[in-house]
Write a structure and sequence with these properties.
This protein has about 210 residues and is α/β, with parallel strands linked by helices. It contains 9 helices and 7 strands, in the order αααβαβαβαβαβααββ. Bound molecules: S-adenosylmethionine.
Length: about 210
């Protein structure tokens, strides 16, 4: 899509909260890894999907600065919560300090550690899962959360277009492990008869999956 049209789409999308604006501002000003942030437009999409699903429990794999966790929190059902996991103590501390300033401070649970170790210990039934951590584990995460996801619940996976590199994987070119893992993840989801899915070409690609069986 041309840049003016993207700008137009952004202009006609509802504004984000002041806390989210502040996270993005500090992230873009101070950090070299800011491409990890969901950012304004994708954040609004995640928030609206959450509002449509009205989840009681959201599991987010990959907190970073807590931007997307706060977006999901906007759609929680009464009494609902977001559980968000990350291995990075430094970014998690920053995420906590931002969440503290928001109206959702009591609705977000932060867990520190590797997702492959934390997920099997979760007792909650999940309504919505956001996969946004190490790319090589996307398929593992999908399998680990699937039985915990309620029927009709959704999994959203970020970066599934991987700046277009998945096309190289599809055409059989030699690719790096992350690209291969993401292409295999997309293939696996498409072949999974238990779900309905759509790959939305928003930002770096969002795979939206609904558990139907
Ligand atoms: C792309 S960022 C998350 C961005 C955030 N969801 C957002 O949209 O603003 C990916 C995060 O995954 C975390 N991560 C990487 N490997 C992980 C693992 N094995 N378990 C948990 N978190 C991991 C990284 O530390 C990083 O903060």
């Amino acid at each position: 899509m041309n840049e003016n049209l993207i700008k137009y789409a952004e202009n006609y999308t509802a504004r984000e909260s002041e806390t989210l604006r502040e996270i993005a501002r500090q992230c873009y000003e101070k950090r070299t890894d800011s491409s990890m942030l969901s950012g304004f437009y994708q954040g609004r999409v995640l928030s609206l999907l959450s509002k449509m699903i009205q989840p009681k429990v959201v599991l987010e794999i990959g907190t970073y600065l807590g931007y997307s966790a706060l977006c999901f929190a906007e759609g929680l059902a009464t009494g609902g919560k977001v559980i968000t996991l990350d291995v990075n103590a430094e970014t998690q501390a920053t995420a906590k300090s931002f969440a503290e300033k928001s109206e959702y401070k009591d609705r977000i649970e932060f867990r520190l550690g590797s997702a492959t170790e934390i997920i099997p210990k979760l007792d909650e039934t999940l309504d919505l899962v956001f996969i946004d951590a190490d790319k090589e584990n996307y398929s593992n995460y999908y399998h680990l959360v699937f039985d915990k996801l309620r029927l009709g619940g959704c999994i959203i996976a970020d970066n599934v277009l991987w700046s277009g590199k998945v096309l190289q994987a599809e055409s059989g070119e030699e690719v790096d492990p992350d690209t291969r893992a993401l292409h295999e993840f997309n293939q696996m989801v498409l072949q999974d008869r238990r779900v309905a899915n759509v790959l939305l070409p928003i930002r770096d690609g969002l795979m939206i999956v609904r558990k139907e069986k």
